[in-house]
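[AMINO ACID CHAIN]
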Amino acid sequence: MLHHFFATYGLGEKVAHLHADNCSGQNKNRYMMSYLMWRVLTNQHNEITISFLPVGHTKFFPDAGFGMIKRKFRKTKVGSLYDIVDVINQSATMNHCQLVGDQQGKVIVPSYDWVDFFEEHIIRSGAVLVRRTSEVSDERKIRLIRNSSWQPTSSSLPDVIKPAGLPLTRQWYLFDKIREFCPAEAQDLVCPMPRKRPSS
């Protein structure tokens, strides 16, 4: 999503300052650092700084947006993905829903295999500057490029991960068990009848 954000909403800025919480699964990991370094290596940015909020103090502006979504969601009848889109877009002027795919399986925002891409080219051996504190004296350099002869370009993207879709057993479960609880107008979107039975 960060790649999509820069590609869609970037203004040609060469210096970026990012703020994130301490979630190691999403933000505070070597793949995020590698992605940011790849953007600098490919001249999409000259400098990127990412700051992690102190533990216990991670409430910041986006949380207000999520709060408004939750408040709208509690008061709205939701029966499909498109209802969720309406909830988000109507919750506040600051909120804008970005679907990564629709209920028919169309991919809107592709997911790239950054993990394998960076395992092959970058991880451990550019460089990033890291600090444990805000003190400059605490700064140290970590080398990340694996192959010094690698010349990345902004068009050298990883493979796209294609969504597999729901297995037949799950499709039949939704049709048999969940469909009756969906609003009539959403049943064929959320729980359509599968085209065939799963093989036994």
Summary: Strands lie at 15-20, 47-52, 111-112, 128-130, 140-142, 160-161. The chain has a mean pLDDT of 86. The first helix runs from residue 2 to 9. The CA atoms of residues 175 and 191 lie 5 Å apart.
